[in-house]
Amino acid sequence: MRPPLWLGACTVLGATREAWAGSLQEPRVVFSANATRKVLAVPGLQDGFLSLVVPRLDLKEGDVVEVATELGKTSLLDVAWTAGQILSKRGTEIELRPLDEQLKPFWFSGVLFRRFPWRYVALDVNDAVEVCTTRGWELAHVQSIQAANDSIAVAFEDGETFPLGRPWVRRPAGNVLGSMDYAQIAVDDKVKVETSRGWEMAKVLHKEIEIGKHCCTSSFCHGKGDSTLDLEMCPDGERFSGRPRIVGPIAVKDQTLKLWKENHQLRAQVAELSALKSMVESISVVQISMFLAQHKISGYVQEMLTPGG
Questions:
Q1: Signal: is it a keyword of this entry (predicted)?
Q2: pLDDT for 17-73, tens place per residue?
Q3: Among the three residues 141, 170, 199, which one is the final residue of a domain in this structure?
Q4: Would you call 261 helix, strand, or coil by DSSP?
Q5: How many domains would you assign to the chain?
Q6: Does residue 212 belong to any structural domain of this protein?
Q7: 262-290: b (≥16 Cβ within 10 Å) or e
Q8: Residue 292 to residue 300: CA distance in whole angstroms
Q9: What's the whole-model pTM score?
Q10: Domain range holding 155?
Q11: How many other C-beta atoms lie within 10 A of the C-beta of residue 225?
């Protein structure tokens, strides 16, 4: 039997707030044109709570669902989901047969359920999508969809294919922002850089432009060769070197950067509170539904046992 949902939550109650709050910030990937293509998965926080949690009372035998078998293993919002078919229901438990044939059926007493599949239900074969990779959002087409594993296979414009998996995709945006022409960019300039978190501010530490066999490493160069930039991300100071898509230069004062850092921290706190609010609301709705059902049943039983009832 798999551990109930609340066991994982207990491991986190004694942890410091910073320990799990920091985990809400997904690792940053700065998109670069010269990077080896790697397909990125949907960030853990989005993947964990992107679909609606459904109440236990809405489920019936034969339904295929995902259940939260672990919560808080490494952070408060680190949720592990197991997909399976409901074999039977018994009180507040359901018997689940996992879709993974290597796992045995088990009884589940947790409260978080969601329909399965859900990630790619709006897509069809041959649909055009943008796939998030280490190079940015790249145009591709859906080759196949496997509902049993909630996964898709895609083919990129250059012919490279990505086998069945769970890539981070979106509908084509239709407009490409930014540029990789660094001619007007100088050392110490501030620019906006496209990353897996969106458009972020960065400072140019170094610029290297290769023109034929000549490499220009001056602080300002008008060449348009195979350019690379060394960047320091704001506000955390993470360093990166590559060929990112940028917008800039941008006139930003140090005081503005300080405000940007404070805003960044506030946004992280808002994301944290919003995620916690969604979790509490989802759990509360399920618990309230169960309480009302049990109270109603108890009322019926009491009426039947009362003489003259």
A1: yes
A2: 444 344 456 788 999 999 999 999 887 666 766 667 788 888 899 999 998 887 656
A3: 170
A4: helix
A5: 2
A6: yes
A7: eebeeeeeeebeebeeebeebbeebeeee
A8: 12
A9: 0.68
A10: 128-170
A11: 16
